[in-house]
Hints:
Elements lengths: L1 E3 L3 E4 L5 E7 L3 E7 L2 E7 L3 E5 L2 E5 L9 H4 L6 E7 L4 E5 L4 E4 L8 E5 L4 E4 L5 E4 L7
Antiparallel strand pairs: 1-2, 2-8, 3-4, 4-5, 5-11, 6-7, 6-10, 8-9, 9-10, 11-12, 12-13
Amino acid sequence: MITESADRYDLDLKDHKVMQCVVDFAFTLELERLGQRVTVRVEGPFTLSRGGQTHELDPELRPRELGPALDLTRTSVRAADVQKTGELELTFHDGAVLRVASDPKYEAWTLTVTNGPIIVSGPGGKLTFFRSPSKLD
């Protein structure tokens, strides 16, 4: 699921379909492929680029402006990677690119794989990996 290179981790999320977008004090994508569910929760500002336009979005401060991100519903992931400095990038088959920068003071995002790892981009871009419960024995 996760392949490490010198400056980043590549996540095997290819062809995971966006089944649901959730807006509360964060922006969450619920992804699924072959019964595997992945939750990506973005807790701070992020950018969404598509068709030559880049939208600066903030689910906590400006939830009404998240419309462009809701268009991700029913598209699927082409590539996903995490920079070792804490940034997350998801590229979608329709050409959209979602980027979440690390945050100096707060958790920027969390990625949770059902029965798999959990990755958290903590304050200052510090990445924390949690293994699945079945692998904690």
